[in-house]
Amino acid sequence: MTSMDSMADADFRYARTRAFFLRVLAALSGHSRDLMAFEDVRENLHLGGPVYRGVKPVRVDQIVGSVDRYRDFDRLFLPTQSRTFDRWTRINRAWYQDISLPPVLLYKVGEVYFVIDGNHRVSVARSRGQEYIDAEVRECSARVPVTADIRPEDLERLHDRVEFLERSRLDEVRPGAVVETTILGGYERLIEHIAVHRYFMGLESARPIDEMEAVAHWYDHVYSPVAEVVKQSGILEELPGREATDVYLWVMDHLHFLRETPGKESARPEEAAQDFIEGLYDGTLDNVD
Hints:
The protein is an alpha/beta fold and 289 residues long. It is built from ten helices and six strands. A hairpin with a 2-residue loop joins β4 and β5 (112-117). The mean pLDDT is 90. The protein starts with a helix and ends in a 7-residue tail after the last helix. The chain has two domains: 3-148, Conserved hypothetical protein from pyrococcus furiosus pfu- 392566-001, ParB domain (Alpha-Beta Complex); 169-282, no CATH class. The chain is elongated and about 90 Å long.
């Protein structure tokens, strides 16, 4: 065995050992180190495409998953088993010999990438601290932002958000609108709010209301005024991990309560928001779950 072979073998053993200890630490901390499975992402986010984007350099740390090798590597693309030893060390030896390898093949989703072909090349590149890798990219479209901090446990929440957008088409009616909730069943409640709003719009105007018209009117005249009050109040700084839409849902519950109070039967959503937020600050309201 040559010295180059020895170094290539030692690199694999080091990567394998590092993967083991990081998995132990992850088990103790409760944080997943699993590589993302592309099929899970495709199904949960209802991806469109793909569209061919050509060959380009891609940041290695933005590659977070794989099509079919997501069990063979961890989140850092360290090998989690020994059966790929031969292929991994062969590619690693090519790195020592400065041999150019063909581009890897990737799916792009939002800001992240998934390996179609070239998992071992990505693994070696990352273990050697390589910042970029040449890749042939095919881009899939998603209705929600997908960033490099995405984890497998995020998929259920993102799935609910995607279904909300598909049903409401809010992203078509108001491009750039961000409506995100962490409350269990929150997106279903938003759909109900829009349906009720559409019903009352029809009563007031004595005509059928198109779904898209109702969504736009709800966003402009109900949701946005509340969200603006929330934003200006700074209350989210007191509620770490919560979103403006969470407060909106609490405010709408509070609005029903407020309208049963004598003299406040005609309270508007933004007035309920101000009253609710003041209650949180002065401690008269403390249950927001």
